[in-house]
Amino acid sequence: MKTIKDLDIKNKRVIIRCDFNVPIKEGKIVDDTRIVEAIPTIKYCLDNDCKVILMSHLGRVKEEADLEKNNLAPVADRLSELLEKDILFSEKTRGEELEELVKSLESGDVLLIQNTRYEDLDGKKESSNDSELGAYWASLGEVFINDAFGTAHRAHASNVGIASHLPSAAGFLIEKEINALSILDNPEHPFVVVLGGAKVSDKIGVIENLVTKADKILIGGGMAFTFLKAKGYEIGKSLLDEESIDFCTKVLKDYSDKLVLPVDCAVTNEYTNDEEYRIKNVDSLSSDEMGLDIGPETLKLFEENLNGSAIVVWNGPLGVYEFEKYKKNTDELLKYIVDNNIKTILGGGDIVAAAANAGYKDKVYHASTGGGASLEYLEGKTLPGIEAVK
After folding, report:
1. Is 372 a catalytic residue?
2. Among this protein's residues, is 60 annotated catalytic?
3. Do domains 4-171 and 185-378 have the same CATH topology?
4. pTM for the model
């Protein structure tokens, strides 16, 4: 893969597509991980006397009301703190005001352009990879660096569009992500996959791609109950992905030696954090109960299957992680892999957030910054944002 070090960027206007899609509440950034991860690529450009132009999306923009809440101005402030320098900020995504700012750039300057998805307000020009928009943005720079792994699975005007007009390469974050995830292409063994989250349909591609490579696939989260239903168990009011039952039945039949399902779970009668739960075996749920987490015996079973693993990839929490009561076993399994120094890749999204919350994110081999992108990589799909800079 071609990286920023393969291009001549000295003294040039370099456009860097970053992933600054960070949680912001009341104008304050809640988690700046993605901003911090972009700093090495930005600093490399500054060390090469570049004029740096940063672009990113933030949230979704469908109507006028979305503009204010998805304003990138707080990101400019945080970048200024991290880089210890003033950051120029363009409120406009195109036009004379932006062009004048670009023209005024000197070596060592950094300009952040407003949320690229502001362009979605008029015909989804960013998200649909509008060719005219991609060409316009490309005209602002001389070199393009894609460092936004979080959107690498999407073909947008600000990644694929710009890359089709300029000398392009990947930044250090994308290089790090691909180097880490590529060890799963031909993994060491024992290779164990842990899958949680809500719906089986979200993970069908991952299961199909990894079940032939993995020694074991441990299944928790809400998706486990669709597998249990496929085995004929009463799952009560637990989450059911009915359209995926046939898929679960087939996988259980073809790979019964590889799939490990819960044997017990934490059940309650209401989807709430307030009601007390009880532990029940998975074959003893009543019609008015729902499972919201794996149970202690399942945790032991999962730990036994992880013991001695060479590589683990984990996507999705094992319980309803937003409820305090049902975080415990996800946290316990994270603690187990860290305490036992198991080489683990966390596949972005909720499981990385859970690991950060529990203090384990920086203690695993790799915690991906891109949930959707890492999931599609695990499915064996091509990522357009990376293909475009190859």
Report:
1. yes
2. no
3. yes
4. 0.88
